[in-house]
């Protein structure tokens, strides 16, 4: 049910209309998804086999995954997954250290009404063209009961899969078994409390986990998961996705909608960037990104690009969103 999510975004957008943009965003390092078939880009993952290519998908148009060239914004392949059931709500995508693409059919806008969800997995094609590939389907349950989720991350070193639930109270990061098994139900167990999130991504070195929501993003040291560090992404529409470039020097943030924009944010050294620093590369790896700054440090108005008035409006917007969620929960 897209209407619930759209209402939350509309309320947030109304409150954030007067907020100045986050100065750390490097727009010239991003790209526009031009394919008219992609109207609900709900996940984003950098290809390991094809430099400059990013995988994405819609929520509910079928078992399809799209390969988008960041240099042009054009789709260079549509992959049809066979061997899986009809997807219900695909919300996340990630590429594992084995070179396989993982797709999280983990959304549940009915508030945890499905007793299981699915993860699909297939090897990255060696050649980018429209094709059908056989995928493996994994049944997934949560140890503490069904829930809605939109974030799924595969650790780039261990290959372990994590899911971030989407709840206004008590959201959690859930850890899967060391290896997924298609022959039985895979039980995911809560290992950390986290903010309300729409997507997440590990840095290529596996030392940072970035979690994003409609109103911003935070970076956490992995595996400690202590206090998060606010990033200067700000409000960017119906925010649904985040990924790192393969070199770890740039984060990319996507959103739903036709001709949706993918914005770039330079990564500071120590936040998952390649050791030694240097100029941030563009998503295609063929040029330099913006030097307009890195991630915000303390989340203060100076770090995020918010004026004092903007911070007040942002707070009011947050109150409005929580009020609406509370009303919805009572219905």
Helix content: 10-25%
As an assembly, this protein is single chain
Strand residues, percent: 25-35%
Ends apart, CA distance between termini: 15 Å
Arrangement of strands in the largest sheet: 6-7-8-10-14-13-12-11
β-strand number? 21
What structural class do the secondary elements suggest?
mainly beta
Overall average pLDDT = 80
Q: How many H/I helices?
A: 3
Based on Cα principal axes, name the global outline: globular
* Helix-strand string: HEEEEEEEEEEEEEEEEEEEEEHH
What do you see in this structure?
12% of the residues lie in helices and 35% in strands. It is mainly beta. The strands form 4 sheets. The protein has an 8-stranded mixed sheet with strand order 6-7-8-10-14-13-12-11, with no helix packed on it. It has a 5-stranded mixed sheet with strand order 2-3-4-5-9, with no helix packed on it. It has a 4-stranded antiparallel sheet with strand order 1-21-20-19, with no helix packed on it. A hairpin with a 6-residue loop joins strand 12 (161-165) and strand 13. It is globular and about 45 Å long. The two termini are 15 Å apart.
Give the structure's gist in a few sentences:
This protein has 331 residues and is mainly beta. It has helices at 2-15, 301-304, 308-330; strands at residues 25-32, 44-46, 53-56, 64-69, 75-82, 92-95, 100-105, 117-123, 131-134, 136-142, 149-154, 161-165, 172-175, 186-193, 199-202, 208-212, 217-221, 229-231, 239-244, 250-255, 261-266. Helix 1 packs antiparallel against helix 3 (308-330).
What's the topology here?
Blueprint: H1 2-15, E1 25-32, E2 44-46, E3 53-56, E4 64-69, E5 75-82, E6 92-95, E7 100-105, E8 117-123, E9 131-134, E10 136-142, E11 149-154, E12 161-165, E13 172-175, E14 186-193, E15 199-202, E16 208-212, E17 217-221, E18 229-231, E19 239-244, E20 250-255, E21 261-266, H2 301-304, H3 308-330
Parallel strand pairs: 5-9, 10-14
Antiparallel strand pairs: 1-21, 2-3, 3-4, 4-5, 6-7, 7-8, 8-10, 11-12, 12-13, 13-14, 15-16, 16-17, 17-18, 19-20, 20-21
Helix pairs in contact: 1-3
């Amino acid at each position: 049910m897209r209407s619930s999510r759209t209402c939350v975004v509309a309320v947030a957008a109304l409150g954030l209309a007067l907020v100045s943009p986050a100065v750390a965003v490097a727009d010239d390092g991003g790209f526009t998804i031009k394919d008219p078939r992609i109207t609900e880009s709900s996940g984003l993952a950098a290809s390991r086999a094809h430099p400059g290519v990013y995988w994405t998908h819609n929520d509910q148009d079928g078992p399809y995954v799209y390969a988008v060239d960041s240099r042009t914004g054009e789709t260079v392949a549509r992959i049809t997954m066979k061997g899986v059931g009809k997807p219900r709500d695909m919300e996340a995508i990630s590429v594992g250290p084995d070179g396989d693409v993982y797709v999280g059919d983990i959304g549940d806008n009915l508030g945890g009404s499905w007793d299981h969800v699915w993860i699909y997995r297939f090897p990255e094609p060696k050649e980018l063209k429209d094709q059908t590939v056989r995928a493996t389907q994994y049944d997934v349950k949560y140890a503490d009961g069904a829930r809605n989720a939109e974030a799924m991350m595969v650790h780039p070193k261990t290959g372990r899969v994590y899911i971030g639930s989407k709840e206004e109270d008590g959201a959690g990061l859930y850890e899967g078994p060391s290896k997924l098994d298609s022959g039985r139900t895979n039980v995911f167990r809560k290992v950390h409390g986290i903010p309300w999130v729409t997507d997440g991504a590990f840095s290529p070195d596996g030392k940072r986990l970035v979690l994003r929501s409609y109103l911003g993003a935070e970076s956490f040291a992995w595996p400690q998961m202590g206090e998060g560090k606010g990033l200067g992404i700000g409000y960017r529409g119906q925010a649904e996705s985040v990924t790192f470039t393969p070199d770890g020097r740039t984060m990319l943030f996507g959103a739903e909608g036709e001709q949706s924009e993918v914005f770039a944010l330079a990564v500071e050294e120590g936040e998952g960037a390649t050791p030694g620093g240097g100029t941030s590369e563009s998503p295609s790896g063929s040029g330099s990104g913006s030097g307009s700054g890195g991630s915000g440090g303390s989340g203060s108005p100076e770090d995020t690009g918010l004026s004092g008035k903007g911070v007040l409006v942002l707070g009011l917007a947050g109150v409005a969103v929580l009020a609406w969620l509370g009303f919805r929960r009572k219905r």
